[in-house]
Description:
With 241 residues, the protein is α+β, with helices and mostly antiparallel strands. The protein has helices at 4-8, 23-36, 41-49, 101-117, 131-134, 136-140, 154-168, 202-210, 233-238, and strands at residues 12-17, 53-58, 64-77, 80-92, 122-128, 172-173, 178-179, 219-225.
Amino acid sequence: MTSSSENDKKLNGRVIPVNQLDTAVKNLMFELMHKFYFVEQTAFFADLSRKSSVVLLEDSRGVLRGFTSVALFDLNIDNQPLKILFSGDTIIHPDFWGSLELPRVWGHFMLETLRECGDMPLYWFLISSGYKTYRFLPTYFKEFFPRCDSATPALMQKIMDAAAIKLFNSAYDAVRGIIRLDNPTPLRAGVSDPAKERLANQHIAFFLAKNPGYDAGDELACLTQLCHENFRPFVNRLLRT
């Protein structure tokens, strides 16, 4: 039997095209983001308008507890067309950290996008100003870049640079792999500070060394290929639910 407290911690996710979001939901998204990040309302709504879809996460009472926004666009690298799935603002209320609903729903959206792409390669371009976001990569994927234990292959670097320049232009520092936005959205103090015991984690330590300006809102550009072969084994099991 499921207790009421367990139900209170359960999230339900759904994907909605941005052009179908009503004003009330957009305002709730901003309020949730503003609670944990330093973010300007005008910049938030402008960024949202450039996305194609959002994953909304609601609790058992229908209260918005998290979301992520995504956009899909084309690139051509060395005469090879490919698709980029870009993740924008992402937030989950701390009370629901550890929930697998976001990766489950986002994963199904990713699989649908993968099917629509057919034989065209699909990559996930992720920017991260927090170690929790970066940790999605080693948790769910076998290969991703940049990473602590191997250099970024030339092709992956070329794709990453092209995606970052297309989206952020001169805000992207290709040498450091860092995006410094005109309107950064750093986390508020105390929301997700890396505890000392977590610094022993090689991925967290790498992220903090690679992006020392994370607490000011600097974003680390990251890339992984979206394909079944690159998923960690438990991901395929998760996506069957």
